[in-house]
Sequence to fold (239 residues):
Amino acid sequence: MTDNSTALVTGATSGIGRAIALALAADGHHVIVHGRDPARGAATVEVIEQAGGHARFVAADLTDVAGVRRLAAEAGDVDVLVNNGGRSWFGPTSDLDTGTYDAMFAANVRAAYYLVAALVPAMAERGRGSVISISSMAAQVGLAGGAAYGATKVALEAMTRAWAAEFSPKGVRVNAVAPGPTFTEGADRGRIEQLGSTTLLDRGARVEEIADVVAFLASPKAGYVTGAVIAADGGRTAV
Fold:
C-alpha cells in the first residue's frame, strides 16, 4: 500500500509531528513535511532522506485560511493526511486574550477542517485514503487552565466522527489519536512528569509511542478501523 503513497503531516518539524513524519517515511510513504520554520523543515527532510526515505517541506501558517489552501494545493493528491499541527495555551481562563483564543481555534480546528475539505474528496474518488487527527486527553479530562485548548480537541474528535460517516462509505478511513502527557523538546518536563504520574503507567509518553499508533492507523493493518478515537494516554482516561 505504501508504494507511491504520499502522506501530509502538519506540524511535522518538531515533537510528535516530527516523530510521525519519521515513522511514516520508514513505512515507505513519501512524506510532505509541513511547518513554519524552513530550517527545521529542511532538517527533518534530511533525517528522513539519510534513512533512505523520501520527503519534501512545505511552509504554511495554519492560522491563515489562504495559507491552508495553498498548503493543500502544494501537497496535491495525498493518501494519508495527519492533522497534527496546532497551538496550545494553558492558564487562568480570565488571562486568555481574544487573539490567542482565535489563533488556537484557527490552527487546531479550522485548519484541519479546510485541509479535509480540500484533500479528502479526491481520496474518496480514488476509493482509498486515511485521515488521522491528533487530539488530546484534554478532550476527555478537565485540566485546570485548559478549557479553550480542550474545547479545540473536542471539536476535532467530533469532526473525526462526522468525517468518518461522510467519507468511509467511499473507502476513506478517518480516525483520531488522543495522546496523554508526552515528552517533547518544547514541553515543560516537570509538568509532563507530574501529569505522567496520574496515568496508570505512571509516566509520560515518548513521541515515538504516539507516532507508532498513527503509523498503525495509516497502514493496512487498521483496515477495519474508522470513526475511532484511540487513547494513547497510559490509561489516564480509562478509569
